[in-house]
Design goal:
Shape of chain B: globular
Structural class of chain B: alpha/beta
Radius of gyration of chain B: 16 Å
Distance between the termini of chain B: 34 Å
Oligomer: heterodimer
CATH topology of the largest domain in chain A: Rossmann fold
Number of strands of chain B: 8
CATH superfamily of chain B: Vaccinia Virus protein VP39
Distance between the termini of chain A: 55 Å
Strand content of chain B: 15-25%
Protein name (chain B): Methionine biosynthesis protein MetW
CATH topology of chain B: Rossmann fold
Radius of gyration of chain A: 20 Å
Number of domains of chain B: 1
Largest sheet of chain B: 8 strands, mixed
Number of helices of chain A: 10
InterPro entries (chain B): Methionine_synth_MetW, SAM-dependent_MTases_sf
Structural class of chain A: alpha/beta
CATH architecture of chain B: 3-Layer(aba) Sandwich
CATH class of the largest domain in chain A: Alpha Beta
Helix content of chain A: 25-40%
Number of domains of chain A: 2
Order of helices and strands of chain B: HEHEHEHEHEHHEEHE
CATH class of chain B: Alpha Beta
Shape of chain A: globular
Order of helices and strands of chain A: HEEEEEEEEEEHEHEHHHHHEHEH
Largest sheet of chain A: 8 strands, mixed
Strand order of the largest sheet of chain A: 1-4-8-5-11-12-13-14
Strand content of chain A: 5-15%
CATH superfamily of the largest domain in chain A: Alpha/Beta hydrolase fold, catalytic domain
Largest interface: A-B, 26 and 22 residues
């Protein structure tokens, strides 16, 4: 087995704390199997208070990781939610104890397809059971328990992280005081499944994918994964934002070259997005996390009624959508809000005006910052955290 | 969509009708002034619905539980008896279907509090009678062609509507221009003539 790739190294020995769960603490997966042993890599920021009431769990999106507010060990870039998380920021590390763990099926230290299968001594590849959002959440709940926290002050996340936050509220209403569901949905739409399938097929069409056994053979399906990322990246932006940023501008040239070189800036940008992604992400992991989103349909688990998932919920909810997000639209957020209203749950719903598309949730959007700050402050008052 | 930003006195009066710790839904909560008042002074579990996204964002930034919604459509989502009080402050006249809204309020809440500008007030009657023009007063500042207020009613009209939707009037108050309670007694027609605004506390008649 070769250890050529940095992303692979992080999968085995992450540069963050790691919690191991042995055979005595298996994870009951949606696929109907028990997973044991398994590990969860995580980061924490700030301090847990004496009565352990100030813990916030942040759930990362599809290709995010536990390094929410610290430098990424592979790319050297700031944490993916540095805009919101830090001292004095809306998710204030001076005030709250922040936990962020790599999701089950991920490739940054939590058990995923790149991890070693104890049964074979080789990477799981596709032998890892298909992971669901609920599996990710149950694993996080075990980590939170391991950290000695009974009730989380808040669970927050955007995109796939928002799905996890929603799933948390449904599975563990008494263990989560408030949740923020940002740019997410209660179920994956046909269009979203379709985009994910394009990405997966791009990975699997790469001859270096080797039926998912590329790690053992010392290769990797970089081209396929890069194409998957390029296609997905378009869905994270908006037409306006692309037009504003790139228009039809040419890349370091004055004339079109009458070739298939990256003449346009937008092509160059996407190629860059694709090639940097493959350095930090495992291709099989991409198959697993996209599948988890596709399988997500919370209402289905509650007899088709989303409201039934939240009946008598004591949790305070905040749902946020962005006007130009066409991947997880405001209409999808409204479905969640309607269900929460039907359950007479405490809910705030804000739609943020922006042309930055789905990725707006990662950015320093003034109204979004104000919403997050206000919602957490209100919840902190209700929780008696301000004293 | 308020006729005019409701005055402080008006809101204090609403707040005084709500018991401590009650669960309240404020429909058309604007910038959240009443919600804040209820939460701060009455320890109320206060939620809001507001049609303008700007109003909603401002409320949530203040830590209030508010959703964007349209009273005419979105009240239907809420469960029966989900709240102790449902409040409609200076918003009834801006709804498309006031009867439906009132019925929904009485279904969702054990009690409903409704305040509205009284179109039966003598000054308004005078403007129509003497000038033959749609009235514009310091409380109702919009010209007819730009007003969001599409369903004005008088106190007597509202009393009939309450009867129609089988609501019992628990309390009624006539308010002056500033929203202070006017203390007088008399039949509805007197109230209708003298009250610039009105506030009603209603509940469902027992079946």
């Amino acid at each position: 087995m070769t250890e050529t790739f940095t992303s692979h190294a992080e999968a085995h020995s992450p540069q963050s704390p790691i919690a191991h769960f042995d055979a005595s603490q298996p994870l009951a997966m949606s696929a109907g199997v028990m997973l044991a042993p398994f590990s969860i890599a995580y980061q924490t920021y700030g301090r847990l208070n004496a009565d352990k009431s100030n813990a916030i769990l942040l759930c990362h999106a599809l290709t995010g990781d536990q390094h929410v507010a610290s430098v990424h060990p592979i790319t050297g870039k700031p944490g993916w939610w540095s805009a919101l998380v830090g001292p004095g920021k809306p998710i204030d590390t001076d005030k709250y104890f922040i936990i962020c763990s790599n999701v089950l099926g991920g490739c940054m230290g939590t058990t995923g397809p790149a991890s070693l299968n104890p049964a074979t001594g080789k990477p799981y590849g596709l032998d890892l059971p298909v992971v669901t959002i609920a599996d990710m959440v149950r694993a996080q709940a075990m980590l939170v328990q391991r950290l000695g926290i009974e009730t989380l002050f808040c669970v927050a996340g955007g995109s796939m992280g928002g799905m996890q936050a929603l799933q948390w509220a449904a599975l563990f209403p008494d263990r989560v005081f408030s949740v923020m569901i940002i740019a997410a949905a209660a179920r994956h739409s046909a269009q979203n499944i379709a985009f994910h399938e394009v990405g997966r097929q791009a990975v699997m069409a790469d001859p270096d994918w080797r039926g998912g056994r590329y790690l053992e053979e010392g290769v990797r399906p970089a081209k396929g994964l890069a194409v998957a990322r390029m296609a997905a990246h378009i869905t994270y932006l908006s037409e306006e934002a692309l037009q504003r940023k790139f228009g039809r501008k040419l890349q370091n040239r004055t004339e079109k070259t009458f070739s298939f070189d990256a003449d346009f800036q937008v092509e160059n940008y996407l190629r860059h997005q694709g090639s940097t992604f493959v350095d930090r992400f495992d291709a099989n992991s991409y198959l697993y996390v996209t599948r988890a989103c596709d399988y997500f349909d919370l209402a289905q688990d509650y007899g088709g009624s989303l409201a039934a998932a939240f009946m008598n919920s004591p949790t305070r909810f905040c749902v946020v959508s962005f006007t130009s997000d066409w991947l997880y639209t405001t209409a999808e957020s409204r479905v969640i809000v309607h269900a929460l209203n039907a359950a007479a749950a405490s809910v705030s719903f804000v739609e943020i005006e922006t042309d930055k598309g789905h990725d707006a949730f990662l950015l320093d959007e003034t109204d979004f910052i104000a919403t997050t700050r206000g919602f957490l402050a209100g919840a902190a008052r209700a929780r008696g955290l301000d004293t | 969509m308020n006729a005019k930003p409701a005055t402080r006195i008006d809101l204090l009066l609403v707040a005084s009708m709500v018991e401590t710790g009650a669960r309240v839904l404020d429909v058309g909560c604007g910038d959240g002034e009443l919600l804040r008042l209820l939460a701060d002074t009455r320890g109320v579990d206060a939620r809001g619905m507001e049609i303008s996204q700007k109003g909603v964002n401002d409320c949530v930034a203040k830590g209030l539980s508010v959703v964007q919604g349209d009273a005419d459509i979105d009240l239907a989502d809420y469960p029966t008896d989900g709240f102790d009080y449902v409040i409609l402050s200076q918003t009834l006249q801006a709804t498309r279907n006031p009867r439906h809204v009132l019925e929904q309020m009485l279904r969702i809440g054990k009690r409903a509090i409704v305040s509205f500008p009284n179109f039966g007030h003598w000054r308004i009657r005078w403007q129509i009678a003497a000038r033959g023009r749609m009235p514009v007063t310091s409380n109702l500042t919009y010209a007819w062609y730009e007003t969001p207020n599409i369903h004005f009613c008088s106190i007597q009209d509202f009393v009939s509507l309450a009867e129609m939707v089988e609501a019992r009037i628990v309390r009624a108050m006539a308010l002056d221009r500033e929203g202070a309670q006017m203390r007088f007694d008399g039949p509805w027609w007197v109230w209708n003539l003298l009250g610039e605004q009105a506030m009603f506390l209603l509940e469902r008649k027992r079946a």
